Amino acid sequence: MNPIRKQFDANSAFPFSFAYKGTKSMQAELPDHIHDWYELVYVYRGKGTLFIDQTIYDMREGDLFAIPGNTIHRALPDKDDPVTSTAVFFSPMIVQHASFGDSFSYLHCFEQQKKRKSYKFELAHPKRQELEAALDRIQEEIRSSATGCRQAIVLQLQSMLLLLNRESGPAHGHGAVDSSVGPSWMKPVLLYIDDHLFDDGIEIGLSAVSCKASVTPAHFSRVFKQTIGMNLSEYIVTKRMMRAKELLNDTDHKISLIAEMCGFESLPHFHRMFKKLLGVTPAAYRKLAWTPTRLPDRT
């Protein structure tokens, strides 16, 4: 399995990247994205599907997707009417702010959507106009490179995140939506894999999950690869690696314990797969993760 890297052009002093009103063909679209930066995707026109974590969403005019870092996602544009969208990538560090006596966080909307396993917003027309205006202003700041342009970009990004936080709050529970796109067996299978990803003695290989889906292994493999962008074994390893990254970031557990917690059969196997997928060893990744001035990795 080759490392999957989403490359960014952002300078190390300003961890931000912006792809404005791009139209993606199936050939131009990466098969799947896994990176530590947060991402917003706004659709202007066209259609397609977007797989995020456990769900396949329709992509239509006016849709907005908020994708937390370290989340598998893959877009599949329609071949006849491909999506035109703007994508915003950023490190959490650029939206950090001083505390003003409350618990507000610009990233709260991402955290809420991750808990709900629902990453799509359908905004009312006035809110869409606000969002499009903010994206237009970011593009103008990038184009002009005027004094304070980076500060101006961050202000526009913060205004968009404030809008999403208000839309995802209790008074606006309708803002986030779920989806039933894709084969009927896909989401239950993805939930089953997630539920048993780290369980000993519970089989989540091709034979078991295709049986659970009531389809043949060959049919399961073909549809799964077409939809998710990787085969089942690659998907399982990638999900385990994402959990390993979280544990390396957030705990001081020994690497051998993390390997065991994430379902790897041995420490050498964990080291080998981690470096193959992410390009660095677990110890090197942890060292970068615990360096205060580090950039988020771009895998």
From TrEMBL:
Molecular functions per Gene Ontology: DNA-binding transcription factor activity; sequence-specific DNA binding
Domain HTH araC/xylS-type span(s) in chain numbering: 187-288
Keyword list, A-Z: DNA-binding, Transcription, Transcription regulation
Keyword presence, DNA-binding: yes
Entry annotated with the keyword NADP: no
Protein name: AraC family transcriptional regulator
Organism per entry: Paenibacillus piri
